[in-house]
Amino acid sequence: EVDITNMFPNDTERMLAAFHALPEPLTFCRNILLVETGDKRVLIDSGMGQSDPADPGHLLDRLRAENITPESIDTVVITHYHQDHIGGLVDDAGNLTFPNARLVVPSQEHGYWMSEDILAGLDASDADRLRQTFAAYAERFTLMDDTTDIAPGIHYVPALGHSPGHHAVHVESGDARLLHIVDAIHMPIQLNALD
Hints:
Number of strands: 9
Helix content: 25-40%
Strand content: 15-25%
Largest sheet: 5 strands, mixed
Structural class: alpha/beta
Distance between the termini: 20 Å
């Protein structure tokens, strides 16, 4: 069951009633996007990977089903540091899942989660996983703000709230535009919240 109290602290009762009125059980998915920019492949977030054996990710299987290998990914863009978005960056042995990719992360999100105060307050295994994951990509690591293009036609857009530095990703090609809002909203019912 979704923790409505944390999601909607100022509108809990009304939102709980709305969730219970849904005709089907509520499910969540992971918001991962692959963008092909001509000769480059940009992956937005890496999914869960094998970091949770009870709920392993399926990203690599789905990429391979489309004849896309992890080695063919040129850039991995991270929107925020929750495990279901960074867990697929390394395998169980700490090896790079995307060995040829540049890793781009939002400066604000990285600054928050990698601060010693925050790391000290996390479970030791979670803190170690964060340190090891980003150390593995140290030679291919880029901190980015929302004023710089990640790749031609791709840039961050602040979407703070889900996490301290959560960012959406804006993709533009010719007249076509997409704002990938990632975890800013998981379901339309969230648009009904008062807070």
